[in-house]
Design a protein that fits this description.
The complex is a heterodimer of chains A (401) and B (251).
Chain A: H1 5-26, H2 33-37, H3 52-63, H4 71-99, H5 105-119, H6 133-149, H7 156-166, H8 170-173, H9 175-188, H10 192-218, H11 224-238, H12 247-253, H13 264-280, H14 282-296, H15 301-312, H16 318-323, H17 327-347, H18 351-367, H19 373-381, H20 391-400
Chain B: H1 5-26, H2 33-49, H3 56-74, H4 77-80, H5 84-99, H6 104-125, H7 136-153, H8 160-179, H9 185-198, H10 204-207, H11 212-224, H12 235-250
The chains are: A mainly alpha (401), B mainly alpha (251).
């Protein structure tokens, strides 16, 4: 399955067709005021959080002969980056498929299909088009490719810094995808040289993103009031109607205001949606718990720590779930994390992961004689949103509660 | 291989789970009794189809496709109050009846004649729709989504005359969908007709010879036909047509 060049070409063709269909279905040909406002914040106003993308945009506007401080330019750029992300996701999956052992190729294809089904529609709809997460996932995939190929791994440190400058939420939503494989190598590799290299990269990566996170959370809002009006004007200029901008985003990031109260309505949604989502996704949650308990069974000391890090990596999202309200993004992040890790370790030919995957498939077949129904079922529950988990989860939650 | 009831129940439960997903996807506000009856008839069709337990896996995958298209459509508010639900009910009764017939050629005749007769009744009793090219583009895309199903449904037919009848039914339905009606009933009934023909065949070992790409394509086509709704067929077909128009406009 997807072994020969021709099969790979068919797979790419299939991916393009599905991507085209999803674009037809979910693409709305505009960006919301929230997502264009992100381009208005730059380091012109000090070393502020989420300022890198806006700074890059401002610099590009300065050095190119075109005027880029308008909606059309931002929209086209975002569209190009979204397509690039979808291409990178495909490339990552194909590289993993190249590396997987032949006996487990089918399993890998099934994981890839599930991951792509969830990823494809995520950043196409107007709600998420141009969201900063897109850039975080691009950078994360690049870092994972370096780890996969075992080349230029030191680049992970600047990648982490760039990601933090784009959005400090990287610490909770994406850093786990990079730290867990490194931690795994440190604990399991037999080569002392490799262990030392990964240890240093891991420490520097972790320290740099942690320092940046603390800075952006507590010290980056000092000159907010002086720049407020100008940022507002830029945000309006970049929006689709020349008027829209996101107030809470500017107040939070520039003035450092607490948005806890403003987000109360979303927290109320989160409270009712979370149990509904757990109920709807229960088959997947059950499989996930069963798989990892199977993986960790009989493991001791270092092995337990190394393999245990994979499910533990999921809990980095917990602080975000407690403090913030974007449960749709967190649900997407969790699914992305699990499947990307499985694909990654399958590509690394890890024997325990491989064998447990096959055992899990046999287990699934025992209680679900039509296992592809799990792939069909998830298609009805996506795309994930930001504050709302998804429309279907929202419907169920509002009916029950 | 005969299966016990527990094994069959597992199949049924998973069709039910996916149906619930499709229901959530399609429903907006109303919980309609008519749609509930339609859904129950649909499940009856599944129960009748799987009663002998032969080729259950293949039949269940067909039902996954059907439930994706059917359940997501009938619970939608654009459809829920529609008269067309009566015809869909009639269609399901015909399909259930056909499944009880052992001889494959007769079963095929019942499905094809039954579908066509319902088409004529619908055509006769409903207000005559205006012939025109309204919503032509999205309907054309919907027909593309049918293509792999048409290919597979032919596989179950044993003789030359069956193939000719099949071709005629598909052509009549297709022409009707594109040129005449703006309703979704015909698309839904065509999906049921093709699936009914496919289930005449449904031998797993034979199907394994088909390229894997075909199955992915069928899954995609099922997705592309979900939540049928009025003039623009659905969000997928309408959206793709809109996108194509914009691309042509830019070029």
């Amino acid at each position: 399955m997807i072994e020969t060049k021709k099969q790979k070409q068919y797979f790419i063709l299939g991916y393009l067709i599905v991507a085209g269909i999803y674009f037809g279905r979910y693409f709305e040909y505009y960006m919301t005021g929230y997502n264009t406002t992100l381009f208005a914040m730059s380091y012109k106003y000090g070393f502020i959080s989420r300022g890198l993308l806006g700074s890059f945009w401002l610099a590009l506007d300065g050095i190119t002969p075109f005027s880029l401080m308008n909606y059309q330019a931002v929209y086209v750029f975002t569209l190009i980056m979204t397509i690039f992300y979808l291409w990178l996701q495909l490339y990552f999956c194909l590289r993993c498929l190249d590396k997987v052992a032949n006996d487990h190729r089918r399993t890998m294809v099934q994981c890839v299909l599930f991951l792509l089904a969830v990823v494809l529609p995520m950043y196409i709809g107007s709600q998420m088009l141009g969201r900063l997460d897109l850039y975080l996932y691009i950078l994360t995939l690049l870092a994972l490719l370096l780890l996969l190929e075992e080349k230029w791994e030191w680049l992970i440190i600047p990648i982490g810094i760039v990601a933090m400058l784009i959005h400090q939420g990287f610490v909770f939503t994406n850093a786990n995808l990079i730290l867990v494989p490194m931690f795994f190598v440190i604990l399991t590799t037999k080569s002392a040289k490799k262990r030392k290299k990964y240890l240093w990269i891991g420490i520097l990566f972790f320290v740099s993103i942690s320092v940046l996170f603390l800075y952006f959370e507590f010290f980056s809002h000092s000159a907010g009031m002086e720049n407020y009006e100008e940022i507002l004007m830029n945000a309006k200029a970049l929006s689709y109607d020349g008027e829209s901008y996101n107030v809470s985003l500017i107040h939070h990031e520039i003035l450092g205001e607490d948005v806890y109260e403003a987000e109360a309505v979303y927290r109320a949604y989160n409270r009712i949606e979370f149990p509904a989502a757990v109920a709807l996704f229960s088959p997947y949650i059950f499989i996930c718990i069963h798989y990892f308990s199977l993986l960790l069974k009989g493991k001791k000391k270092w092995e337990l720590l190394a393999y245990g890090a994979i499910p533990l990596g999921m809990i980095t999202i917990l602080p975000e779930m407690i403090l913030k309200v974007d449960y749709g993004r967190y649900a997407f992040g969790t699914i992305f994390y699990i499947f990307t890790m499985l694909i990654f370790f399958l590509a690394k030919k890890d024997k325990d992961i491989e064998e447990t995957m096959e055992a899990e498939k046999r287990f699934i077949k025992k209680w679900n004689p039509i296992p592809y129904s799990l792939l069909v079922y998830v298609l009805f529950l996506i795309p994930f949103w930001d504050n709302l988990i998804s429309i279907e989860v929202h419907k169920l939650a509002t009916w029950i509660f | 291989m005969e299966m016990n009831r527990l094994e069959k129940a597992k199949y049924f439960i998973w069709i039910l789970v996916v149906s619930f997903g499709a229901f959530l996807y399609g429903v907006d506000e109303e919980i309609s009794l008519k749609a509930l009856m339609g859904t129950l008839l649909f499940f009856l069709y599944y129960v009748v189809t799987i009663r002998n337990g032969m080729e259950l896996e293949v039949k269940s995958y067909v039902f996954l496709f059907l439930t994706a298209v059917f359940t997501s459509t009938i619970w939608n508010s654009e459809y829920v109050a529609s008269k067309e639900l009566h015809y869909i009910g009639g269609l399901l009764v015909i399909l259930c009846g056909a499944e009880l017939i052992t001889k494959e050629s007769i079963r095929f005749l019942v499905i094809s004649i039954g579908t066509t007769v319902l088409l004529i009744i619908h055509f006769g009793l409903e207000e005559l729709p205006v012939i025109g090219l309204e919503g032509f583009g999205p309907k054309l895309i919907a027909l593309f989504f049918f293509a792999p199903l048409v290919y597979l449904s032919r596989k179950g037919l044993q003789s030359e005359w069956e193939r000719w009848i099949h071709l005629a039914v598909v052509m009549i339905h297709g022409a009707y969908v594109v040129l005449v009606t703006t309703h979704t009933y015909w698309i839904l009934s065509e999906v049921f007709y093709l699936a009914g023909c496919f289930m005449l065949y449904g031998k797993k070992e034979e199907l394994k010879k088909e390229p894997p790409m075909l199955w992915i394509l069928i899954g995609v086509c099922g997705l592309g036909l979900t939540m049928l709704r009025g003039d623009n067929v659905n969000y997928y077909c309408g959206g793709i047509w809109n996108m194509m128009q914009r691309i042509v406009g830019v070029l």
